[in-house]
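Posting this for the archive.
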Amino acid sequence: MTAPVGGPEFINALLFVAVAGLFLLFARDWTVRLAGVVLMLPRLLAAPLTLGEVLLFGCTIVAAISHIVYGWKFGTGEPESEVPEAPDAPEPDDVSEPSVCVACRGSIPAGENKCPQCGWSYTTG
């Protein structure tokens, strides 16, 4: 035999679903928040709330409203369309002094861009 539909077990089941709805109030999407409110309504309408339930619902709803208002005030909102910075132009090679070739460890004379021994340069690799 089944229990009557208005019994304490049914009210507790509705409370369980309503608590799940309370958690949905903290979602970012408005449709999910609305679903949370819909999940809470049957418990709120089924029977008078106990003091513990009033505290649970009240504190959570106040926290959710604070969360939403804080998000409006301090949220990032829409990302600003920033113009990407142009890369810095490479500095010209300093060829005023002789340097060491990275590839063959030979000497690149002053005023030259390429290694005379292996042909390596910083621009062509």
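The radius of gyration is 35 Å. Helices lie at 8-24, 30-46, 51-74.
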